[in-house]
Amino acid sequence: MQENVELSVPGSSRPARRPWPRQLAALLGFLALSWAVSALGSVPIILNSNGWYAAADKAPWTPPGWMFGSVWAVLYAAMAVAAWLVWRQRSLPRRDALTVYGLLLVLNLAWPLAFFGMYPMLGTAALWLGLLVIGAHAVAAIITVLRFGPISTTAGLLMLPYVSWLVFSASLNVYAAVNN
What we know:
- It is built from 7 helices and 2 strands.
- By secondary structure, it is mainly α.
- It is elongated and about 55 Å long.
- The chain starts with a strand and ends with a helix.
C-alpha cells in the first residue's frame, strides 16, 4: 500500500501511516466540513445583504462585497488543509489541537449569526456582541496556530492568513459598532 507520512517533531510520537485513499477521504471531509460552516454562516449575510447592512455606515477600508466570498473560500480551504495535516500525525497534542480547531469553526459560525442575524432584533448591541465573538474567534485562531505549529509547521503557517483576516474583520466590526 502506498503511504504518506509527514515527519513529526524530533522526539515526538510516531507519524501517521495511513493509506492514500483514507488520507484523501479525510482531506475531502475536512474541506466539506469547512465549506459547510462557510455555507451556514453565509445564510444570515445573504438574508441581510439588502437589509440593514446595505444601508449601514461601513469603514472606508471595507473591500467590495465580492472580495469577502473569495477570500473566505481560500481561507476555509487553507484551514481545512491545515487541520488535515495535523490529523495525519499521531502526535500527542493532535487531539487538543483539533479540538481548538473545532471551537474555531463554531466561533466562525457564531459571528455572522451575531453580527448580521441578531442586528434586526438587538440593533447596535448585536454589533458589539459580534465584536466579542470575533475577539474570541481571533484568540481561538491564535491558539490554533500555536497548537498546529509544533505538530506541522506547514499547518501553523497555513493558519496565519486566517488570523490576519480576522484582525482585519474585527477592525470593520469595530467601525460598524461605533458608527451604526
